[in-house]
Amino acid sequence: MSITVQVKGLKELERAIQKKVKDVERGAKKAIRKSLNAGAKEAKQIMKPQIPVLGHSTNFRQKGTVKNNLRHTTKISRKELSGQTIIRIRRPKGKRMARVGENTKDRTDPFYWFMLDRGTKKMQGQHFMEKGADMAKDRALRTVAKTFEEEMKTVLK
User: Fold this and answer.
1) If DSSP codes are grouped into helix, strand and coil, which group holds residue 72?
2) Residue 124, SS3 per DSSP
3) Is the confidence at residue 127, as pLDDT, over 90?
4) DSSP assignment, residue 4?
5) Is the Cβ–Cβ distance between 135 and 49 less than 8 Å?
6) What residue ranges in 25-148 does DSSP mark as E strands?
7) Other Cβ atoms closer than 10 A to 55
8) CB count in 10 Å sphere of residue 151
9) CA distance readout (Å), 20 to 9, 10, 28, 34
10) How distant is the alpha carbon of residue 11 from its chain centre?
11) By CB count within 10 A, which of 34, 41, 51, 73 is most buried?
12) pTM for the whole thing?
């Protein structure tokens, strides 16, 4: 004796599952971006006090130029669920840094930051980027993990 059973709706179920997978991936990418940005902000707070500041502004340099240009960029991978954040000294969007030796009248251009950090033959480097990154690493990673978990909980609801 044989019994045949016909199940209807498998195609619809498969489409619904695929849609849910895409929604979770999209939400995960947003969560990755948000958590990486939160970690970068945390790291920048810790790194900023390590950056040297001029005693007072001059005709050529404004006090706090390097410190005010500490920025981060976050890139999310298109193919997989991953991303990276880079923290560095950069100008605001659209403005380029002058080359060393180029005559610049912009007092807020931090083009000389790497000389402060790494040094020159006449000046020893202060290595503030490396010191700040070492100090901020653990707390920033904890912030990234905590933020990612919170965001994914909202995505999975």
Assistant:
1) strand
2) strand
3) yes
4) -
5) no
6) 70-76, 83-89
7) 6
8) 19
9) 17, 15, 12, 21
10) 41
11) 51
12) 0.83
